[in-house]
Amino acid sequence: MRVLAPLLVTAAFALGCKQPDPPPITSAWSDSFERESLGGDWHATQDSYRVSGGALSGRGAYNHPLWLRKKLPRHASIELTAWSNSPAGDIKIEAWGDGQSYDADKGAYMATGYVFIMGGWNNARSIIAKRDEHAPDVPTRTTPKVEVGRKYRWKIVRSQGRIDWYVDDGTTPFLSLEDAQPLEGQGHEYFGINNWESDTWFDDLSITPLP
Q1: What is the DSSP letter of 24?
Q2: CA-closest candidate to residue 62, choices 118, 104, 111
Q3: Of 77, 93, 83, 98, which is closest to residue 208 (Cα–Cα)?
Q4: In terms of Cα–Cα distance, which of 99, 82, 94 is closest to 24?
Q5: 112, 114, 203: which is closest to 164 by C-alpha?
Q6: Which residue has the higher pLDDT, 7 or 105?
Q7: Residue 156, helix vs strand vs coil
Q8: Label partner for 33 (CA 20 to 30 A): which of 44, 58, 62, 153?
Q9: Taking phi first (over 0 means left), then psi (-120 to 50 degrees means alpha), and beta for anything else, what does residue 210 get?
Q10: Nearest-angstrom CA–CA distance, 166 and 175
C-alpha cells in the first residue's frame, strides 16, 4: 500500500486536473491568431504548429492535427484563409472529427471526420473525403494547382447531407460531397488543421452556425 497509494493519488490528481473543453460554438466565432502562442482553445497532437506574424503555421506534422477545442454545430459555415509556401502545395484541414485522433506511425491514417485537401499528392489533386482520403471514389479535381505563397479564401458549408467547399468564389463550389449518412454526434464534432510535410499557413478562421 505504501507503493500504490502515491500512484493512486497522482492518477486521481491528473484526472481531476484535466482541462475541460471550452463551450461549444453556438454563435459566430473567429480566431485571427493575433498573439504569440496557440492558446487554450487549441489542442496540438504534435509540436508542429506555431503562431507567427498573426497567422498559424503547420509543417511536418505527418497527420497529427491541431484540433480546435470547441464543438462544431452540426450545420455550419467554416471560413479561413490558407496558403502554402511549398511547391508541393498540400493544404489540409479536417472537420467534424473527434478532436483527438492522429496518425501514430506515418502509416495509413483514417480520419474521424471530413478531409479537405487542396493540392495534395505533390500538388496533383484536390479532394473532399469522408474519413478515408485514399478512397477511390472521393470528389476530386486536378486543377488549379496551389500557387506558392498565394492566399486562398476557403468557405465550407455543411447543411443536411451536403457539403460545399468554395475557394475564392462564393457562388460556384470548388468541390461538393453528398453524404446519405452524414457524420454527426459524439466523435464527429471538432475542427482541425492538419499537415503532412509542406509549409502551410492559416489565418482569419471563422465558424458560423447555420439553421
Answers
A1: P
A2: 104
A3: 77
A4: 99
A5: 114
A6: 105
A7: strand
A8: 62
A9: beta
A10: 7
Q: Which fold has domain 24-209?
A: Jelly Rolls (2.60.120)
Q: How far, in Å, CA of 60 to CA of 92, rounded?
A: 12
pTM of the model: 0.90
What is the Cα–Cα distance from 154 to 57, expressed in whole angstroms? 16
Name residue, grid cell 475542427.
191
Please give the grid coordinates belonging to residue 112.
Answer: 474521424
Cβ-defined contacts of 157-162 (< 8 Å, 24+): 157/76, 157/77, 157/78, 157/210, 158/74, 158/75, 158/76, 158/77, 158/78, 158/95, 158/96, 158/182, 158/210, 159/75, 159/210, 160/75
Residue 80 · residue 99 · CB < 8 Å: no
> What are 42's three cell numbers?
487549441
DSSP lists the bridge partners of residue 47 as: none
Q: Give tens-digit pLDDT for 74-108.
A: 999 999 999 999 999 999 999 999 999 999 998 88
Beta strands 42-44 and 152-159: pairing type? unpaired
Q: Which grid coordinates belong to 57?
A: 503555421
Domain boundaries, the chain: 24-209
Strand locations in 32-161 (E): 42-44, 49-52, 55-58, 66-68, 76-84, 91-97, 114-119, 125-130, 140-141, 152-159
Type of residue found at 211? P
Please state, in angstroms and rounded to a whole number, the distance separating the CA atoms of residues 94 and 112.
8
